[in-house]
Design brief:
With 358 residues, this protein is of the alpha/beta class. The chain is built from 13 helices and twelve strands.
Length: 358
């Protein structure tokens, strides 16, 4: 009996010791988790970060600059159009931002490298690169030429390659940095009448996903942004081929409708949040999310759907010449279109796009 009692007492003491040790280990583990959480929260703060936004003089790029500035970031923007660049700089400074505006042709590698050098010299470093610059040419395959593919790839694939390769060395040296690539749902599903655009965006998605997997070990976060349609006023500066007026009609209505497009403000907020937390990918808008998921699960279904969309659009001419959206709108001269496009016109005026004609 004494032996049994002694064994029971020893077992109880041992059990208690194990429980205490387990509790101590759990507390230590939770402490480590808490410290890790605080570290992540601290790194998620964007205050004081230097952000370089390509194509930052108008549209989504300008709204992103405003949003990053509201989070305490110092801003560098670039664009080709000097007048729009100056207007964007003044807009951001009125909002209290520290901003550097540099004219740059992103399709020229030497100019991109000089851009990165000037921003780094001015601010001391680049913490966040947002590859945002892009262009849209809308038209059926009958109107498409090899040059259309070359131009799309130059601005939406090669420009992000040049900019990323130029900033990666300094980010790698610091073992910190963020690269954000603005792609498109057109980089997940090839859209009729936007084939060169979709090809370039598919390449941009591959670039972004590949960089994330390889740069993570260097402390560099890469986020792929996949927007659907957005009300940025881009329909005025998009270029149209084939039947210019008809192509402009369907595109501008789709890009302005609240049923199909989200506001630039909402898109910018979502992009900045994804940047803060270093998300691997963020698809913007409900229609874009549904389309991306459906295509991922059932590509054999989405391709016939896109074929039906193309049947609705119909081939609308083989004219290979390009015409700006604002020119096509004047050709239509439709009061009804102007009324329906009220949201698009408002976005164009707010985001430094070419002024809408009365």
């Amino acid at each position: 009996m004494r032996t049994s009692s002694a064994l029971l007492m020893a077992a109880g003491i041992a059990g208690g010791a194990v429980a205490v040790a387990s509790a101590a280990a759990a507390l230590k583990s939770w402490g480590a988790v808490a410290r890790r959480a605080r570290k992540i929260a601290a790194s998620a703060s964007l205050d004081g970060q230097v952000v370089l936004i390509t194509g930052g003089s108008r549209g989504l790029g300008l709204q992103l600059a405003r949003e990053f500035a509201a989070h305490g970031c110092r801003i560098a923007i670039c664009a080709r159009n000097a007048a729009q660049l100056e207007a964007a700089r003044a807009d951001l400074e009125r909002r209290g931002a520290a901003v550097l505006a540099i004219r740059c042709d992103l399709t020229e590698r030497a100019q991109v490298e000089q851009l990165v050098g000037r921003v780094t010299e001015h601010f001391g470093r680049i913490d966040i690169l947002v590859n945002n610059a892009g262009s849209i040419a809308v038209g059926p395959m009958e109107s498409v030429r090899v040059e259309d593919f070359e131009q799309a790839m130059a601005i939406m694939f090669w420009a992000p390659v040049y900019a990323s390769l130029a900033v990666i060395p300094q980010m790698r040296a610091r073992r910190s940095g963020r690269i954000v690539n603005i792609t498109s749902i057109g980089g997940k599903i090839s859209v009729p009448h936007l084939v060169p655009y979709s090809c370039a965006k598919f390449a941009a998605v591959a670039l972004s996903e590949g960089m994330r997997t390889e740069l993570a070990r260097d402390g560099i976060s890469v986020t792929t942004i996949v927007p659907g349609l957005m009300r940025t006023g881009s329909h005025l500066n998009a270029e149209f081929k084939g039947n210019h007026a008809r192509e402009y009609l369907w595109f501008s209505l789709s890009a302005a409708s609240p049923l199909t497009a989200i506001s630039a403000e909402r898109a910018a907020r979502d992009i900045v949040q994804a940047t803060r937390w270093g998300l691997p990918e963020r698809v913007l808008s409900v229609p874009a999310n549904l389309a991306a998921r459906l295509h991922g699960l059932l590509p054999e279904l989405t391709i016939p759907v896109m074929t039906l969309v193309n049947q609705y659009l119909l081939p609308s001419g083989s004219d290979p010449s390009r015409r700006k959206g604002r020119e096509a709108e004047r050709e239509l001269d439709s009061r009804l279109l102007r009324v329906v496009n009220t949201l698009g016109r408002s976005a164009a005026q707010d985001l430094n796009q070419t002024p809408v004609t009365a």
